[in-house]
Write the structure tokens for this entry.
Amino acid sequence: MHYIGIDLGGTIIKVGLVEDGKVVDVKKLDAGSKYGLMPRLDFIANAIDNLLLENNISSNELGGVFLAFPGIVNVRSKRIVSTNAKYDDAPSIDLQCWCCEHWNVPFAIDNDARAATVGEWQFGVAYGKKNVVMMTIGTGIGTGVILEGKLLYGQHYRAGSLGGHLIVNYQGRKCSCGNVGCVEAHASSFFLPQIIQENEFLSQNFRNDIANYNFKELFAQAAAGIVDAKLVIENCMDVWSAAIVNYIHAYDPQVVILGGGIMKSKDVILPYIRRKVNALAWCPDGKVEIMASILGDDAALIAAGYYFFK
């Protein structure tokens, strides 16, 4: 059976055709997330239609359409509950109706980081594990949690998905969610300009050039010996490490998975974070495995089938 997975990222929307835990084909669209979801729906629908046409699949052969959303989602009512500076019109949209009108197939939705966690748990590096935390690092920071072999949701579908909004500095930077000192506010791509500009230990020239920096560039500069870049990177890795210690203490996982495009620098990130977390986490029964995603950007797409056959 084929499924459609849609991953609404902050900068890129990925639309994938999925079969047997693998992405058969994928289309990528500019997100334009600050302009809302409604203006993108026709483009997403066209991408789905093209995927079906190009792969000779009729809607009768489609098991369902799954959407991974960067916000709080009620998986039972299949509605988006709350957003955070991305696709802010989404709670007013009946996506199940949109899906039915276009393809007349089942529709499912979940938080994007939770969906990525499902992908790694069912088809990736955490296959066979019963207690898993995944942290996705990108425009924002998200998490998903598997506890005793079940997805963690909680009373209002927030449990396990707000790891980017745990507090790592109660006197810190104001986050886009309205809280102060969130993990996301201190170590995400969205806040990178502020992170650099407000760091008094960096040279003025480096701080003046914030428009040219992203994590890919910073890791490259750090590898080339640029001290300012190394300071920024290590500061962010310290924040991610602190967050992971919190996740370990809260959820007691067998493994913590790190995902997102930033893991192209996993050779730097993993050893650093493992050292920090092993030194700080209270784990008398043994260290928690910290691993990189093996499904990469496809993790949330690959999860699509799970939401229909589970």
Residues 185 and 191 are 6 Å apart (CA to CA). The longest helix spans residues 227-251. DSSP finds eleven helices and twelve strands in the chain. The mean pLDDT is 96.
